[in-house]
Automatic annotation (TrEMBL):
Domain of life: Eukaryota
GO annotation terms (biological process): DNA integration
Protein name: Integrase catalytic domain-containing protein
Gene3D superfamilies recorded: Ribonuclease H-like superfamily/Ribonuclease H
Domain Integrase catalytic: from-to ranges: 1-120
Alphabetized Pfam families for the sequence: SH3_retrovirus
Listed InterPro entries: Integrase_cat-core, Retrotran_Ty1/copia-like, RNaseH-like_sf, RNaseH_sf, SH3_retrovirus
Signal sequence extent: none
Length: 220
C-alpha cells in the first residue's frame, strides 16, 4: 500500500493526486459525467483530492510528462547501446527510474532519494546497463568440476536487496540475482570477452560495498 508507505517513511500524507484521464486513473467519461474506476474510488474514499488534466492537454501535467519523456529516451538509448532483446525494456525502464531517483535537477537540487530517505545516495555500485558479466550464483549443490560462473548481461538492481540482476540466456531462469560478479565495461560487449575471463578474476572482484554500514534500501 503506497499510501501507508509514504506515511511511514516520510511522515507526510498524500493530499492531491494529479493525472491524465486514462482509464486506469480516471475511469470512464459518460453523458452523466465521470464513471469512477477502482483508483478514482480509492482516492475519493481516502479523502485525497484528484486533479485530472483535460484530454490532449499534456502541458497541464508537464512535470510528469517531461519525466516520462526523459525515461523513454533513456530506455531507448540503453537498448540501442546494448545487444539485448527489446523484451527487456521493462528492466531498462526500472534501471532508468533507479538512476533518475539518484540525480538532482536544475529545479530541485536535492535528489528524490535524499528527499525520501534523508540520506545522500551513493553511486559507487552502479554499472553500465547491458554490459557483459560473469555472475557467480549461489548453489549449495554445486559439484567440484561444475562451472563456477554463468555468462550474462547486467540489467539492473534488485528492489529489496544489495546486489545485481543479470540476463543469462543459457541459464534457467534467464534472469538471476547475485552480489558476486565481474563486469566487462571496457567496451568489449561481446560473448568472446566472456569466454576469456578466468574465475580467479571473478573471485577477486566482488560487488559487495566497501562500507559495512550501507543500508539494504540504498539500492531501492
Amino acid at each position: 500500500d503506497y499510501k501507508k508507505e509514504v506515511k511511514k517513511q516520510t511522515g507526510e500524507v498524500i493530499k492531491i493526486v494529479r493525472s491524465d484521464r486514462g482509464g486506469e486513473y480516471y475511469g470512464r467519461f459518460t453523458e452523466m459525467g465521470q464513471r469512477e474506476g477502482p483508483l478514482a474510488r480509492f482516492i475519493k474514499e481516502k479523502g485525497i483530492v484528484p486533479q485530472y488534466t483535460m484530454p490532449g492537454s499534456a502541458y497541464q501535467n508537464s512535470v510528469a510528462e517531461r519525466r516520462n519523456r526523459t525515461l523513454k529516451e533513456m530506455v531507448r538509448a540503453m537498448l540501442n547501446y546494448s545487444t539485448l532483446p527489446l523484451t527487456l525494456w521493462g528492466e531498462a525502464l526500472r534501471t532508468a527510474v533507479h538512476i533518475q531517483n539518484r540525480v538532482p535537477t536544475k529545479v530541485v537540487p536535492t535528489t528524490p532519494y535524499e528527499l525520501w530517505t534523508g540520506r545522500k545516495p551513493s553511486l559507487f555500485y552502479m554499472h553500465i546497463w547491458g554490459c557483459p558479466a560473469e555472475a557467480k550464483l549461489y548453489n549449495s549443490y554445486i559439484k567440484a568440476f561444475d562451472p563456477k560462473t554463468t555468462s550474462g548481461f547486467f540489467i539492473g538492481y534488485p528492489e529489496r536487496s544489495k546486489g545485481y540482476r543479470f540476463y543469462c540466456p543459457s541459464h534457467t531462469p534467464h534472469i538471476v540475482e547475485t552480489d558476486n560478479a565481474k563486469f566487462l565495461e571496457d567496451g568489449s560487449f561481446g560473448l568472446d570477452a566472456l569466454q576469456n575471463l578466468t574465475f580467479e578474476e571473478i573471485q577477486d572482484t566482488k560487488c559487495r560495498p566497501d562500507k559495512e554500514n550501507v543500508n539494504v534500501y540504498d539500492y531501492v
